[in-house]
Here is the input.
Amino acid sequence: MVFQAPEPYSAYASGESLAERAYALLRSDIIRGIRPPGERLRIEKLKTIYGIGPTPIREALQKLSAEHLVQTFENRGFAVAPLDLSDFSDLNFARAEIENVALRRSIALGGSAWEGGVVAASYVMAKAEKRLESSARGADDEWEQANAGFHTAMVAACDSKWLLMTRRRLQDMCERYRRASLHSETGHRVTAAEHQAIADAVLKRDSVLACELTQSHFMTTLDILVSRSDKKKAANPS
Here is the structure.
């Protein structure tokens, strides 16, 4: 993937500070894999890439370190955090638990407008799946956006803002791992049937089945990554 540096940025145009802009750009690139796990994040290089000065870049890196997306090395700078499967296992568990609480409340409280949102999100998700299967340019980003929209639509009728805020943060933290699970040497991960089954259960107001399917759907991401890791270890024993 060829990275195109952004145009010089004016903080006054959007109301954002330069540190906030640097944070948003770096976070997006880390999650999308443009800045891959383990890459050293040298401030001089990042200044050139993003057109932002060293102080905002450093502030952004410190903030990303607090989110466990960047590692800080004393006197040795910063690096993109590795994909840690043990950490993801815990993160994925927490996400599934929160997701299912929000999903049960959404199913209990949702009306016809919410149902329409579920149907619309399912349609968008199906189109994104087809583009991903055809390896269309930009399909990963489209799929991720559709996937986030799909799961958000399922819980949109939940009436707890704090629950939804926590859920959104966990969803974002899982994105790097989701993206890593989409492709392998043998092809693309196919999730169309999983998403459709979840939507069908949600529209039938079957909260037990919807939660079971959602948890299984999330666990599949972890299972794929663990399987790949085990295969690499077997192929390259120490």
The radius of gyration is 19 Å.
